[in-house]
Amino acid sequence: MDGTGLVGVGASAGGVEALLELVEGLAADLPLALLVVLHQAPTAPTVLPDILDRRCALDVVAARDGDPLRAGRVLVAPPDRHLHVDDGHVRLSPDPRGSPHRPSVDVLFHSLAVAAGPLATGVVLSGMLDDGAVGLAEIVDHGGTALVQDPDDALHPGMPRAALGRVPDALVVRPAMIGAALAEMAATAPRPEDDVDGGSRTR
Length: 203
Fold this sequence. Notes:
The protein is α/β, with parallel strands linked by helices.
């Protein structure tokens, strides 16, 4: 990775509403790349990027296999394809389902943990069952950061509660405030050019 922070966002039932709140709070100069997985029917029309783009200061586009990861852009997984990252690029895969869903939040989060380590952030929004919980724990195990929608604020609290069961120390926040939380994290994150041994980094 080139030092760009990667943010994976996973949602299911009730997730469109939460995603709209989230993207409305993203600043136009946010120096992060965002990747979004929403559980959808395999034959669903790919309209989610357009819906989110109308409410977001960043460009929101449907992810395509081989797309480079760039700060200031939101990539949305298409229906019936896993979204993961590899060597600074997006990969779309029809691999057999490792969960009841394709795209899978866990698949995305696992790839972010491996590819970005402490530069990875996982966000779990409204949804049923537990997709994303295992992957969120992997992100934290690799030094990354976990954010979870407040279950009391979610239309369907199953995914947030499962995530908190795995990562009880995750930051619990309403979707409308996630943009501000990400901006603060990006502003305080160590820069690649900082000299770790020279004391220019703060903890």
